[in-house]
Amino acid sequence: MEAVQHESQSRKITPQQRYAKCIEVSRRIRWDIDRDVLRGRHFDPAHKFMPDGLSEVHRLPFLDARERRLMSQVQGRTYANMFGMIERFVGAKMLEVGRDHALGDQTALEAIVRFTDEELKHQELFRRVEALAAQTLPPGYRFIAQADEVAAFVLGKSTWSILALTCCVEIVTQVHYRQSMESDASLSPLFKDIFLFHWKEESQHAIIDELEWMREDARLEDDARDAAIGDLIELVAAIDGMMQAQAAADAHYFVSQRCVSVAVHHLGRGRSTARFPPTKRRACMRDWSHPDEPHQRGAGRTHGRCARADPTPRARKRTRYARVTRDACRMKREKAGCSRPAFSFLESYP
Asked: How many Cβ atoms sit within 10 Å of the Cβ of residue 340?
């Protein structure tokens, strides 16, 4: 029995070997944004961005095929922007962590330097993605989070909590691509390739994150670890609040585009555009964004007049759905002890 245990321990891969393996793979799979990923392509508005498994558009059965496609594009645009924002604090933190290896394990140092270099490349990639999306989709989209402000907030927490959050995010990128994007043939080929190449390098980043997280955990006392867990909970709650605020902005953008498309549809059929003055379009959008405010009495009827093709009962159903969804999100935050978003730039957002 002792011999078997000794053999098992001898086969165990050491941290230095895992760092070395990450370096080997990084060299082999390294890619260039223009040569390998974009290749001079642009987004086609006829294609989805996000797979249905991530967008959960099936929960909105009242949308038609064109509206579902638009929703996937809006969500995909935000999905890419979220990763571009997250890469900002991840790269900064890994530069800091790398100092611990500067006069020690040079293999670990090289792995972290490569990690940081790739994170900077990913930031550039997602900036390019946003520019391409802006060329394809209608104007009016807003990504409300400021990357530097978010990074400053995150980097103010303990190293243990930041590494824990980063490791979880890296794993999310792996699961999302392998289980949802990889097998969906209906996605935009360009959007799919962007996250394929992103996934390739993030596979190594997840390993390095885990190694650095374990190294940090090994040197913490119980009290410090408990405090770090509290930091992690605050970070997760802050990101949850930020995502809810962005979801509200995305919903407003989506509905504004839908109202415009309905007006265009009526024009194409020779109908009067008198039903779509700016005041009614704004009222239509408020039905989705703020269904509980006093000025929304009779919102279902307003929405029905704005989108004549939709019966009033369906418009009322949409308003009820928006109200229930918002109330559920509010209850979830209150239950978690986070009644408001933690980032200051979110506090003024409705």
From this structure: 11
